Each structure stands twice: as C-alpha cells, then as structure tokens.
Amino acid sequence: MPLPDMMAAALAMDESILDADQVENLIKFCPTKDEMELLKNYTGDMDLLGKCEQFFLELMKVPRVESKLRVFLFKIQFNSQVTDFKKSLNTVNSACEEVRHSLKLKEILKKILYLGNALNQGTARGSAIGFKLDSLLKLTDTRATNNKMTLMHYLCKVLASKSPSLLDFHVDLVSLEAASKIQLKSLAEEMQAIIKGLEKVKKELEASETDGPVSEIFRKTLKEFVGVAEAQVDSVKDLYSVAGRNADALALYFGEDPARCPFEQVTATLLNFVRLFRKAHEENLKQAELERKKVQKEEMENAKGVNLNKKGFK
C-alpha cells in the first residue's frame, strides 16, 4: 500500500485498513527530531533524496505524526486491553468470593485446627485458636510412626469416614487456579498504562485542534472514541479498586497481614493445599483398594484351604 494511502487511513483511524502491527511499523519508521530538522530545511529536488528521506517527508506532512500513530495504536488495542484486564480483575474477585464463602473449606480448616490441638494436647500449642496459612502445606510433612501416612492422609481418611461431603471442597474454588497466576503488581501496571494511554489521547486531541484540515477526520473520530473510552476507564477503575479490597480481605480472612502475606501468596498456598489434599485422598483410595484386594485374596486362599481340608478328611 502506498504511504499516502496508509497515512490517510491512519488519520481516519480506519481499523479495517490498518491493523496494530502495521501501525507499530509506521511508528518505528517515524523520523527523529534531528532528522526532521535536517529535512525541514531541505529545498532541493525531492527526487534526489533517498527512499528513506522521501518516506520521512511524507510522514512529516502530518503534525505530530508519531503521537497520532501512537494514539491510533492505543485505540486499536483499547477494547481487547480493557476486556482482558476486566477478565483478570473478575477472576481475582471471583476467587476471593469463592474462598471466603466456601462453607466446606471453612469446615475443613476447623477440623485441621481440632486435629492440631488434639495432637498437641498437653503442650503450649494444644489450645490454639488458629494457625498460620502456610501450616496447611506442613500437613504433608508430619508422618505417622510407620512413616506411611502423613497428617494430610489422616485428615482425608477422617473426612472420608465422618464428613465425606467435604472431600470435594475444591469444587467451590473454581477460580482459584486462574487467580493464582495473576500478579497484583502487573494489574497495577496495566491500570496505569490504560489511564496514561487515555491521557495521551486527550492531549493529542487538544493539540490537534490547531492542525487545520489535515486532522479534521482524525479529530472527529478521536473525540467520539474519547467519549466512549472515558466511561469504560471509569468503570474499570472502580472494578480495580474492588479487586484490591477483595485481595486484602482474603488475607485478613485467614488472619494474615496483606502486606506480609499478599494475594499471590494466599492463592498459591491454597492451590497447593487443594492439590496436596486431593493427592492424599486419591492415595488413600488406592491404598484402601489394595487392602481390599489383599483381604479378598486371603479369604479366597483360606476358603481353598478349608475345602482341601474337608476333602482330606473324607
């Protein structure tokens, strides 16, 4: 596509003609201030210039060309950027809600506390009213005297026997795994990128008021975009604030300080606990099946022995 046509499409912000990659390439080829100064004073024959210089001159026909191209790129990427960002925020909010409202998880935590107090009976730790969140991962470290069963296995065995409905507590936490991959720092950076991006758009809109006819379509299109984008950014800022409050509330729910035990640590710990719990339960089931088969085999062998004895007696 000839450069004049590309620039016309860029000024019209026509996303059906130019995509993000093409606009990014145009930005890369924008002349520097020094290059523009050199070419600005050139009065010779244009045909004597190289293709690169001719390319620069074409771009320079548009006031603040690089700024306009960056604004266009922001507009192209805006909807997907906001959609993806909202998805992450909603995942954080959902995970926090699921964990805090899971009655099954709450009951399991109570039973872990009871179990810990029972094991530590007679010691200073035998009357605890709570435990640190990372203690959940230590259940696999404590083993029985025969070294075959961990405290996690025992917990699963007790639950399977007395409260089997709690064994599938992970079903309550459908957003936990996705949430564990989200970094709050990255969300903060993304929020700032969206806010600052819109600020630059508004600055360019204001600056383009004095551009004249060359930016007429650009101004009109950009003005419409700003009106829509501002409302979306306000909405996403509110959602971001809610996610931040929920992330802090999640740590507080477990009696942890959000500054010392941030959202990422809470979700990672819970996800690991879920995985260790499910693994222990599966191992218990396999062990029970092996024992059942062993008993069955012994019974069959005993039955054969009885039959043989009867035949011998006759």
Automatic annotation (TrEMBL):
Fetch the SMART domains from UniProt: FH2
Among InterPro entries, the record links this protein to:
FH2_Formin (IPR015425), FH2_Formin_sf (IPR042201), Formin_homology_domain (IPR051144)
Per the UniProt record, one Pfam family is FH2
Location of the FH2 domain = 1-303
Q: Which family does it belong to?
A: Belongs to the formin-like family. Class-II subfamily.
- What name goes with this protein? Formin-like protein
Organism whose genome encodes this protein: Solanum tuberosum
